[in-house]
Amino acid sequence: MQLSTKHTGYMTKRSLSKVSLFSQDLLGVSSNFLSAIDFITIAFCGWILLYMSVGISYTYEPWIHIPKYLGVCISVLLMAWLSRQAFVTGNPKLNKPLSFLRGIYPVLLFGYFFTSSHAFNRIIFHDWLDPLFMAIDKSVFGYYPSLEWGKELSQAWAQELFHAAYFCYYPMIAGLPVYLYFKQPKAFKELIFNLTFVFYLCYTIYSILPVIGGRFIPEAMEITKTYRAGLFTHIMVFIYRHSGHLGGAFPSSHIAITLVLTVAALRFVRPAGYVFSVIAFFLSIATVFCHYHWAIDACMGIVTGIGAYYLANYVRAKLFLLGYQ
User: What is the pLDDT of residues 246-281, one digit of tens each?
Assistant: First the structure.
């Protein structure tokens, strides 16, 4: 049976389209030279630039932070363009390091994005919103867990346990991505995107809602800067003594990111996922016990971490369809 010319033409176009998409996938060339991470990084920086520009009179040192955020946007665009040129021209000496850098550069920016939020987190609300969050905790518990828990269990073993759990965040956020980079590249790309997405989501909230957390209480602030107990308590006191950053407490990104890492580990490295689950349990308590967060911050950190992990997968799939690989 012969097919009509119209039908065969349609089949040919559809087949060519599939071949084209297959060729792009085979060559690693997307229809857009930006990656999905590039897209959300530029979107986040664009939002912060617009936000600082509109509220410049309430921005601390805008002449420092506006050029830095603009520089990040330009650098991301330049890296993406150079990476495309290196691939098209077949220059492996340039392509390999650029591919590596484009895979991990968000991790290099997380620290600055977090600490810089204090420069513009009181554009809308000019005063700290902690009294509201204190009232929520007080209405639920009848006291302030972020002050009382750590005081009630002041023994060295308890302080070390929870400060160690809180500290585990740092080796976890470095260790799992590095392992996946060498062992499971596809899982690595998913994890880095999800970490980046959740960080940017938290940072966007921080830019609008200025919340210090438990350290808003002077007594709690003093405790977090007083050396006591053992090694891990000393490490965390050292970090907070040398950090002038205030804000960025609601929701707890410490919990949110730990849960992103835990879900990823359970999916891709099951034994590590079990260990991460135990750490995540104690770390979630530690954010309040160690006086860093209100209890409501911790609760919303749990919701954000689990919910945003799957939201990030959805967004990444949509961006992939739009050509952002």
Answer: 889 999 999 999 999 999 999 999 999 999 999 999
- DSSP category for residue 144: -
Contact 141, 230 (CB under 8 A): no
How many alpha carbons lie under 13 Å from residue 32 in its C-beta half-sphere?
A: 14
Tokens of 158: 């308890």
- Crossing angle of the two packed helices 62-88 and 92-116, in degrees rounded to 10: 160
Whether the link from the prior residue into 251 is cis, omega within 30° of 0, is yes
CA 16 to chain centre: 40
Nearest partner of 133 among 313, 310, 2, 298, judged by Cα:
298
| Cα angle for residues 291, 292, 296 (degrees, 5° grid) | 95
Strand, helix or coil at 292?
coil
The distance in angstroms from the start CA to the end CA of the chain is: 41
